[in-house]
Structures are given as C-alpha cells and as structure tokens.
Design goal:
Layout (H helix, E strand, L loop, with lengths): L7 H12 L2 E3 L13 H9 L4 H7 L6 E5 L2 H10 L4 H6 L9 E7 L2 E4 L8 H10 L3 E5 L6 H14 L3 E9 L8 E2 L3 E8 L2 E6 L10 E2 L2 H4 L4 E5 L4 E4 L4 E5 L6 E9 L5 H19 L21 H16 L9 H8 L24 E4 L5 E7 L10 E7 L17 H7 L2 E6 L3 H9 L3 E2 L8 H13 L3 E3 L1
Parallel strand pairs: 1-2
Antiparallel strand pairs: 2-12, 3-4, 3-5, 5-6, 6-14, 7-10, 8-12, 8-14, 9-11, 9-13, 15-19, 15-20, 16-17, 17-18
Helix pairs in contact: 2-7
Length: about 475
C-alpha cells in the first residue's frame, strides 16, 4: 500500500483554508439534477457554487470540493451506478480491457489483474473480494440512461466530448498509483466513502496522462473523505490518488471527464492550415518559393526571420477574418459525441408532421447537435475542388460506441459511415445562417435565388430531423 498522509481531521482543516471549499451540511436545497437546459444541468451539478464563481476561481486553476448532506441527492447519485448493477451488466456481454479493467495499486505501481475475453461475474466478484482489486468500468453511459442524459447535456454545455469511468474499490485498498490526467475531472461519490489526496501539479494543464512516484510529489495539498452526494472537481495535471478506508465495505464513484485535446494550441493546429491556404490565394508572399536545399539543412536558423514575417502577415489577416475554417475539431466532436437523450420523445429523431413548403414557418431543432462547415468538395476529388457547405449532426450517432474509439483496420471506412449530414453549394451559406440564427423563419424569407432552392433546402433539413414545421 502507498504511504498514507496525516490525520484526516488535521488535514481537513488545512484544506478548508487552502481550497476555500464549499461545504454544505444540512442546508443543501439541491435534490435532483435539472435537465431543463445544458446550463441548468451544469448549474445543478456544481450547486451551490455559482457558475460565474466556478469559472472565475476554480476552472483550470484549483480543486473544488462540494460536500453535501442531502439524502435525496445521495440516493440519486447512487442510482447512477451501483455495485449491484455489475451482475446484470456482465450478463450483457462485457469484455476485459474494452469494458472492464481489474487492477490494484501495489508498491506505487498499477497491477492489472484482467482475465482474457468475456467477463464472468463470479470471477470478477472473487477478484474484488479476495484480491482487493478495483473494478474500473469504462464509459458506463453506454448502459446507464441517466449518465447518458447527464453527459449529453454536458457535451452541449462544454462543446467538448464528455467521457466517464466508474471505480469500485473494496475497503483498505487502492486501485491506481499517484498520477495526473489530461482531462478536466468531476468526481461524483455514489456509494461508500473514498479517501482522496491531491498534490501540486508538476505539469500545469497537462496534455497527457502520467504516473508520479511518491517521493517526487511531496505532501498532499488537499486531503479529505468523499461521501455519497459529494462532488470533487480538479483541473488536468492535478496529481491525485484515492483509497477506500478500512471500515468502509467498498466505495463507488464515477469520474466524468472533458476537455481532452481542447486547448488553444489544439485549436491553432486545427485552423492554421485553412488560414494559410486561404491567405496564400491572395498574398503572393506565401506563394514564393522556399530557399534552395532548405529541406536538406540541419540548421534552419536563417529562415526563422522569414517565417516570423509570414506569421505576422497571417496574424494581420486573422484580425480581419470573421470565420475560421476548422479542419477536424468541429467534425470530430459532432461525429463522436452522444446523440440526444430523448426518452419517450425519441420520435423527434424521425421526420414527421407536415412537409415544408414555400409558405411554411420552420424552426431549427437540436441546435447543439449540428454544425455548419465550409470544406473542399469531398465528392469530386479528381477535379478542381471547390468549396461546399456541409451540415453535420449527431442525431444518428450510436450511444453504444461513445468514447470507445475505432480499430485501426476499420477506422477509415467505418469512420466515414458515421458522418451524418448534408452537402450544399456555397451559395446556400447565408440561408443556413438565417435558419441557425432565427428562432423561427418562413421558408420564403430564405436568402436564395429561387423558391425551388428554398424548398429544397428546407426539405433536406426536414428529412434529417433538423427542422420542424410549425
């Protein structure tokens, strides 16, 4: 077992001073999550902390601990995932590695105890009871509808993929060694209690996962016990470890994570190629040749001044640009995010009702699940590729594969099959912007030349369930 920190009572006082935690004992009015909108969902998740306070004082800066004594909220958290759910889920055909990892922290290192192939519940329970192993359940939103509801709303709120893992750890045991992650982390304590220790980051806002040794991380900056209904947030790069205390039969918590590879650096890598391409059409300086043998040189210091000059020209162009061409990030998000969780209203994902006509009033549906992009025409690769409008949406995405990745052998063909959307001429851009920016609009008011074009645009969007006719 890794070396433990000091007494909980003493370090609890330290954390109160260091973290300025929000501790709500009996006065917590929150009983259930609010699914009215993405904004209200996130507000209820971090309540009683206000969203403005959270993003001003905690987001990407320091941990936030919200301790609650609300039996209704604790019961709701427990409904998200319980140890007793495993027996039924194993009957649905779970596999080691893909769906479940069995592991334990031994002498500061992660020891994986996975078997081969399909998970057998009795064997899993045996490893849990006898080997004191932690059960890590990957992406439970694929099976648990309430987590699907929460994560789908959070993906709308953040505009970034939101994954989750459940960790079930028996008493007196620890699943993972001290480490930091490349994601923003929200911990919801579901069952039992978990003893947490957080440490000062060695890499602020880290871009990758890494294990840290006990002798390198020093003393905890925060130490506390999470109980059912409690929430913990910490930024990527925060070193952490957690164990289930003796006397607590087991602990279950869900880790909800977001903002992986979603930094300004990632965004620059995404938009700069399009910016260079568009600028080079108009600026001859970007079309002049590089020096002879530049690609053969080891030292390119002589070219850095020229590169700096060209980057300044790009910066000048950028300041006068209202639109940026995203090459991958927008499409990757829409292609891989969760579909809407509609419950009994799933008929909304099937075209129905009146067909749109020229005099129809229409309204955009599922605004958070669709994007408009300008891209080279994908259907005329052998010709001069002109720009086209693509409208991508996530209404037909498969919840069962959310955050599970694709095999290298099938990623190409299957990845393209997962792209759902429509293709329009560039002349349709203004009309699409009208629909996206209006609460309602008449088809005849769309900024297109002919009534036929207006009706065709509305009908195309209607067949994908992206608009409704009022």
């Amino acid at each position: 077992m890794p070396k433990k920190g000091g007494k909980h009572a003493e370090t609890g006082k330290e954390m109160q001073a260091q973290c300025k935690r929000a501790k709500v004992e009996a006065a917590c009015s929150l009983s259930v999550m609010s699914f009215e909108s993405p904004d209200s969902l996130f507000g209820s998740l971090i309540s009683p902390i206000k969203q403005e306070t959270f993003f001003r004082e905690y987001w990407e800066q320091k941990p936030l601990l919200v301790q609650r004594s609300d039996p209704l909220l604790a019961a709701y958290y427990q409904s998200l995932f319980k140890l007793s759910d495993l027996k039924e889920l194993c009957g649905q055909g779970l596999y080691y590695g893909r769906d479940i990892n069995v592991c334990r922290c031994v002498n500061g290192k992660k020891k994986v105890l996975n078997k081969e192939g399909k998970v057998n519940y009795m064997q899993l329970k045996k490893d849990f009871d006898q080997k004191k192993a932690t059960i890590q359940f990957h992406q439970p939103q694929r099976f648990k509808e309430e987590l699907w509801k929460i994560q789908e709303k959070l993906e709308c709120y953040f505009g970034s993929l939101v994954g989750s893992n459940v960790y079930i750890t028996p008493q007196g045991s620890q699943g993972l060694p001290p480490h930091y992650d490349d994601v923003e982390v929200f911990i919801l304590q579901l069952e039992g209690e978990k003893h947490w220790r957080l440490y000062k980051p060695t890499v602020h806002l880290a871009r990758e996962y890494n294990v840290e040794s006990e002798d390198r991380i020093g003393n905890p900056t925060h130490e506390f016990i999470l109980k059912p209904g409690d929430l913990l947030y910490f930024p990527r790069g925060t070193i952490h470890q957690a164990d289930t205390p003796l006397g607590i039969s087991y602990s279950t918590h869900v880790t909800i994570s977001t903002y992986q590879n979603n930094s300004w650096g990632d965004f620059l890598l995404d938009v700069i190629p399009g910016l260079v391409f568009d600028t080079a059409k108009e600026d001859v300086a970007l079309r002049t040749s590089i020096p002879r043998q530049l690609l053969m040189q080891v030292d390119v210091a002589d070219s850095t001044k020229k590169l700096s000059s060209l980057l300044r020209r790009l910066a000048d162009r950028l300041e006068n640009t209202r639109e940026l061409r995203s090459s991958d990030m927008k499409k990757d998000f829409i292609m891989n995010r969760l579909p809407p969780c509609l419950g009994c209203d799933s008929d909304l994902l099937t075209p129905g009702g009146k067909l749109p006509k020229i005099d129809s009033k229409i309204r955009l549906q599922f605004r958070d699940h669709a994007i408009i992009t300008v891209e080279p025409d994908q259907e005329n690769a052998d010709e001069i590729r002109r720009d086209m409008i693509y409208v991508y949406h996530s209404l037909k995405n498969r919840r069962e594969t959310h955050m599970m990745g694709t095999d290298d052998d099938t990623a190409g063909e299957e990845g393209m099959a997962q792209t759902h959307g429509l293709r329009f001429p560039l002349s349709y851009l203004d009309a699409l912007k009208q629909i996206w920016s209006s609460s309602t609009i008449y088809v005849k008011e769309l900024n297109l030349v002919s009534d036929k074009e207006k009706e065709n645009l509305a009908l195309s969007l209607w067949t994908e369930s992206l608009i409704e006719v009022l």
